Amino acid sequence: MKSEELLQGYREMKALLDGHFVLRSGKHSACYLQSALFLSDPVRAARAGEALAALLEPERPEIVLSPATGGLIIGHETARALGVRSLFAERKNDRFELRRGFALRRGMRVAVVEDIITTGGSVRLVLETVERAGAECVAVGCLIDRSEGARFPVPFHAIATLSLPVYEADACPLCRAGTPVDAPGSRGLSAG
Ligand SMILES: [Zn+2]
Questions:
Q1: 31-61 per-position pLDDT tens digit
Q2: Rounded CA gap, 178 and 57, in Å?
Q3: Backbone dihedral region for residue 107 (phi beyond 0: left; psi -120 to 50: alpha; all else: beta)
Q4: Average pLDDT for residues 143-163, to the nearest whole number?
Q5: 12 C-alpha to center of ligand 1: Å?
Q6: DSSP H helical segments within 69-180, as ranges?
């Protein structure tokens, strides 16, 4: 799966829309991106996992670790394609913890997998989780990198890279042009 195929899949699942949107942060954007809609199709999710696994495989990960909840489904599909286990870490205040009996062996080679990387903040916290466990993160992978150049101390692979500028509400060019705000729900979507 190439970048174009992934983005086409997002569009077909209405997980990538053009318009004028107010994000949960209150900022405005000309794009709406919702991976959960794309990943709700198990066949597409499996194919995306295979594509991400192919990018991560050269780093020889022994396990996949994802931040909940965004990384859960794609982490699992990537792990399935790699033939390794998939764990997830859960946010508690300013860190991600392994719960539910999940553990990493010391020295274990870990791939951290996320759906979308926007600031890279969650992934950096998960890298700290790996470090606290004495394991070694060997790669970070995601479906779409919209970070405008986030860097990590390990190889970073994304199937697609997108530049999706966001604007402060009082500095939004779409507002200034009088473009009405779209609500994704108004287009027959279930996610908001
Ligand atoms: Zn606006």
A1: 999 999 999 999 999 999 999 999 999 999 9
A2: 48
A3: left
A4: 95
A5: 25
A6: 72-82, 121-132, 173-176
Outline where DSSP puts E strands in the chain: 16-22, 28-33, 63-67, 85-92, 95-97, 109-117, 136-145, 156-161, 166-167
Proportion of the chain above pLDDT 70, given as a percent: 96
Say which amino acid occupies 101.
G
Rounded Cα gap, residues 151 and 73, in angstroms: 23
Give distance in angstroms: CA of 17 to centre of ligand 1: 15
Instruction: Give the Å distance between the CA of 22 and the centre of ligand 1.
Output: 7
Residues with CB under 5 A from ligand 1 (ion): 28, 172, 174-175
Q: What is the mean pLDDT of residues 95-110?
A: 97
184 C-alpha to ligand 1 centroid (Å): 14
Domains in the chain, CATH or no CATH each: 3-166 (3.40.50.2020)
